[in-house]
Amino acid sequence: MKKVLCVLLALLLTMTGCARQAAEPEEELIVVGMSQVGAESDWRVANTESMRREFTEEKGYRLLFEDARQKQENQISAIRRFIQQRVDYIVVMPIGETGWDSVLQEAKKAGIPVILVDRTVDVEDESLIAARVGADFYGEGRKAVAWMEQTFGAEPIRIVHIQGTLGATSQLGRTAALEEGLARNESWELLAQLDGDYTQAKSYELMSDYLSQFPVRPKIDVVYCENDNEAYGAIEALEENGYICGPEGVAVISFDAAIDALLYCREGKIALEVECNPLLGPLAESVIRSLEAGQTPEKNYYVDEQVFLPGDITDELLGTREY
Ligand code: AHR
Prior knowledge:
Number of strands: 12
Bound molecules: alpha-L-arabinofuranose
Oligomer: single chain
Helix content: 40-55%
Structural class: alpha/beta
């Protein structure tokens, strides 16, 4: 009797279509909580777009995106919210390197893998991080300093250094490379080190203030800007104060290689562009895919990057650039 009832029930379910629904449940989306630094630079905007392009419903993801507006405490609160929401993965672009141990331990305790994109963190327990995807910032700085050594040799040069957000991996790496160059080259003089916080507005303001203290324009040979937006601000301030940025004047060095900066470089206003690739979405997504497949990803994934001089900026190259 029981058997007959079961057959009848199965028949009924098939007729109403319920059996089909039960056999093919809707595919579950992977929930990713993402804490982005902010929107301080063109690089950052391109990085956010690259992430949003990758973590879509069509590709099987639900993305919970939070903009920290350049405040690390906002990132920590966002991570705690992601833990409460029981997301499957947490992706963080950390602002600074320190101050992460407790919140990352909370994520680990909740069993949520954390993937770092762009910068890294300085934590004692490496197992708090599943993987990091980003650039070799110190390597980028070394490329810039190698160019300075080749270009100026033992000439005495006077340098203004505009740093990125203090404590960020990209600032630490690019600054360390310049400071090593300064220690190696006795003829290099550091005139000022300004905290541009990776923004155009702050770089413009600090450079203008710096220049306004001199009754007579000081000689400046190099301005080492730690990103493109700082370079735009510095160039504006320099030009307003009568400097020429180019082969006959100040050599501006910049990092990122966003399209506008490459155009400045073609004009000669930026002497050297060291690329920092923000298009990290596909790599971050492949790390999550490998975790989903039960594999252990590498700890670090680096992206290929190049350097550009004015003569390298052709229309063809510009046509291939995605940011
Ligand atoms: O950490 C990467 C740096 O952060 C990029 O060079 C800069 O533009 C951004 O804001």
